[in-house]
Amino acid sequence: MPEGGQARAVGRGEGVSGGYRFLPHTADIRFEAWGGSREECLAQACRALVASFAEIPASAPARTASAGIDGGDEQLLLSVLDEIIYRLDVGGTLPREIDVRPTPTGIDLDMSEVDTDRVRFTGATPKAVSLHGFSFTRDDRGWRCSVTVDV
């Protein structure tokens, strides 16, 4: 969780506009994200994951990367977060900008990536997404997810 350990919201509120907020957790990172569409909620979850442990300068050089991910709703959420953790561990990169587009079988994830040597780490890096308390649902206000990340 970012410094201070407080729950905080990023976004315009919990309606159609997307955003995320960190929730108190004893040892790991916990957040909720929301969006008017499934893809916006997925993008907000990715932003929350990165913001939970890193600050990426807007001036840092970036390159474009993409990934096609197939699956049902919960599998897509798990897979996009795992993709970010994988790219951090194996490629030494983090996404500064994230765009999620629907495909017939899942999503395309387009990212503007920055090398981690240009990133300021503000917390413990994630190891894995926990299935405990994991959810991804749609309601009358849009899409919402709850995620716990092992650090």
From TrEMBL:
Record-level GO BP terms: tRNA processing
Recorded family membership: Belongs to the archease family.
SUPFAM superfamilies cross-referenced by the UniProt entry: MTH1598-like
Protein name: Archease
The keyword tRNA processing is annotated on this UniProt entry: yes
Keywords from the UniProt entry: Calcium, Metal-binding, tRNA processing
Entry-linked InterPro entries: Archease_dom (IPR023572), Archease_dom_sf (IPR036820)
Annotated TM spans: none
Signal peptide: none
A Pfam family that the UniProt record links to this protein: Archease
Domain Archease, first and last residues per copy: 20-151
Gene3D superfamilies named in the record: Archease domain
Keyword Metal-binding: yes
GO molecular function terms noted in the UniProt entry: metal ion binding
Protein origin, superkingdom: Bacteria
